[in-house]
Design goal:
Blueprint: E1 11-20, E2 23-33, E3 38-42, H1 49-56, E4 64-69, H2 78-84, E5 85-88, H3 100-108, H4 117-124, H5 139-150, E6 157-160, H6 169-184, E7 188-192, H7 196-202, E8 205-210, E9 213-218, H8 220-227, H9 232-240
Helix pairs in contact: 4-5, 8-9
The structure holds adenosine-5'-triphosphate.
Adenosine-5'-triphosphate binds at residues 20, 23, 25, 43, 45-51.
Protein name: ABC transporter domain-containing protein
Domain ABC transporter: 11-236
Pfam families: ABC_tran (PF00005)
Length: 248
């Protein structure tokens, strides 16, 4: 498809609400992300991070509110959105008997100009595992493969839900480098994170979610300054009354 005008926002969400039974997971969330921004979504367990990014990616329908990705409706224009949006899912379940290279090859067929397999595997550090079946990969390797698959079609907007959760320090640094290379390509990234170190290092802006609401949206330095705290950890506590420390 044609490249969208650079002035079109990468993501616009307006007054999103989502309930599961008696639980309000997302409660009147509005957000706007410009093309090329790397935005972190932070919050304690259950704050609504996954539900919010799933609504943005069109994986769930909001009870009310609307989403546009590069001006497109993820439900009505699903096919076009798939060509510009890459999504790494929490707990992706993939065909267990296929190898890493076969799965990457399969995903590449979905796109007109896919990234080369070798480049994708190098990006996530799975070159040596290319002939290993999915079912034989460790949890961290499966997670990294799901990131490679999200990037297979050269998306303009990427949603990453489990970038580094549970990864060892070396794999974590590799995933950070992968996000930095996306930034160099002016790809927009929406990144669910559980650590301050990660958002301080990678993100232009942080969306702080608490109980399904956006309680702050600012640069990491801006969050610290506006909350009167000394560190981003302290800013988080000041803004939510909760500590992120317990999460990892
Ligand atoms: N499919 C579902 N059915 C019922 N309740 C759900 C479902 N998915 C999420 N919830 C509830 O919605 C709320 C928000 O969940 P969500 O997964 O969006 O939070 P999160 O911030 O991503 O949490 P975590 O850090 O644990 O991944 C929680 O109270 C959760 O229990």
């Amino acid at each position: 498809m044609s490249t969208p005008d650079t002035s079109t926002p990468a993501v616009v969400a307006t007054r999103l609400r989502k309930r599961y039974g008696g639980t309000t997971a997302v409660d009147d969330v509005s957000l706007r992300i410009e093309q090329g921004e790397v935005v972190g979504v932070l919050g304690v367990n259950g704050a609504g991070k996954t539900t919010t990014v799933e609504l943005v990616a069109g994986l769930r329908r909001p009870d009310s509110g609307s989403v546009r990705v590069l001006g497109l409706d993820p439900h009505r224009e699903r096919g076009r959105v798939r060509q510009v949006l890459g999504v790494q899912l929490q707990h992706a379940s993939l065909h267990a008997a296929l190898t890493v290279a076969e799965l990457v090859g399969l995903y590449r067929t979905f796109y007109p100009q896919p990234r080369p397999t070798a480049e994708l595997l190098e990006l996530v550090g799975l070159t040596e595992q290319r002939t290993v079946r999915f079912e034989r990969l460790s949890g961290g390797q499966q997670q990294r493969l799901s990131i490679a698959l999200a990037l297979a079609g050269r998306p303009r907007v990427v949603v990453l839900d489990e970038l580094t959760t549970g990864l060892d320090p070396r794999a974590r640094r590799r995933m950070w480098a992968a996000v930095e290379s996306l930034r160099d390509e002016a790809v927009t990234v929406l990144l669910v994170s559980h650590t301050m170190e990660e958002v301080e290092r990678l993100c232009d802006r942080v969306l702080l979610l608490d109980a399904g609401r956006v309680v702050a949206s600012d640069t990491p330095a801006g969050l610290v300054a506006s909350s009167g705290a000394d560190t981003l950890d302290d800013a988080f506590v000041a803004l939510t009354g909760k500590s992120l420390e317990v999460v990892e």
